[in-house]
Design a protein that fits this description.
Length: 307
């Protein structure tokens, strides 16, 4: 009995070795068109709008008020939620036993968040009686993308098939943000900007595992990393003041560091300028703003051969 137990690990290693070295005999290749449906979730970085709100919400002055003068500040400013649900529908064609190509679409992306923060204004070296309230409402929309996928398959075990994939996608995207401020109950002003990506192109790559359940039904698991940093955001910005002043600007969305004496604090601001030169006249550290959908997606589903 003791000798039998000692042999079990050896027998298991021999079995695993035979599965790796002698995979199942390959059948004659037949070009197949398949429908692949998967669903799951992941995350996206979001980009400049979240960075701007995070730096404003957690600037040194606000953090000091929260820790030492909690009665002088309330609320918080929140960016867009990074987590997302996702699905993908794809028509996939096998070009050879190892090479496939597919065209796919996936779930649209929509995030909207509204938040506000109130703090006692800084005047004459002290926190005065006036309360300044900031409200921000960012929103991002990405329509259903169109993606071209390339696959390279290799069978290492007898049943599961490992596939490497890479591709390119077209992601029509829009980004907007409304902001407003009050001193006590008196409205001071508001701003609204709306932009869209001029070249909404991203790339992706990942790994798939496929396991046959039935003759014409395969279980699929995909893990995919994607790089979708959408810059050169073009659009318009409107500004309104309580005295009736109105401004409108068309151009490119930039991010720059702003010194706010009423807090006081430095934080990133998003604004539209006609040219980079005009942006540099207004602020020193200027960057192109981005809508960044870069992230990782995990999906599980099925592949069905059609013919």
């Amino acid at each position: 009995m003791r000798n039998t137990r000692k042999l079990l690990p050896l027998l298991f290693c021999i079995f695993l070795f035979t599965q790796l070295v002698y995979p199942e005999q390959e059948k004659p290749f037949r070009r197949t068109l398949s429908l692949k449906l998967t669903g799951g979730g992941g995350f996206a970085l979001i980009g400049s709008v979240n960075r701007s709100l995070r730096l404003l919400n957690k600037n040194e002055t606000f953090q000091d008020l929260r820790e030492n003068h909690p009665d002088s500040i309330s609320g918080e400013l929140r960016g867009l939620n990074n987590w997302l649900a996702d699905w993908e529908m794809e028509l996939k064609m096998d070009l050879s036993p190892k090479i496939s190509i597919g065209i796919a679409t996936a779930a649209p992306f929509h995030r909207r968040e509204e938040s506000s923060l109130s703090y006692a204004m800084f005047e004459d070296g002290k926190r005065g009686p006036w309360i300044n309230t900031l409200l921000y409402r960012p929103e991002a929309r990405v329509s259903m993308p169109v993606k071209l996928n390339f696959y390279y398959s290799q069978r290492y075990l007898k049943k599961p098939k490992l596939t490497l994939n890479a591709g390119i996608g077209y992601y029509p995207a829009r980004l907007s943000q409304y902001s407003s401020s009050w001193i006590d109950t008196a409205w001071i002003g508001s701003a609204y900007l709306e932009v869209k990506a001029k070249f909404p192109i991203g790339v992706h790559g990942g790994v798939s595992l496929e396991y046959p359940l039935l003759k014409n039904l395969f279980l699929v698991m995909d893990i995919q990393a994607r790089y979708i940093m959408l810059g050169n955001l073009q659009g318009r910005q409107e500004e309104r003041k309580s005295d009736g002043t109105y401004y409108e600007t068309n151009g490119t969305l930039y991010s720059f560091e702003f010194g706010d004496k009423s807090i006081p604090a430095y934080y990133d601001v998003l604004a539209i300028f006609e040219t980079l030169e005009k942006a540099l006249e207004y602020a020193g550290r200027v960057r192109n703003a981005t809508l960044d959908l870069t992230g990782v997606i995990l999906r599980v589903g099925f592949r069905v051969p059609l013919f």
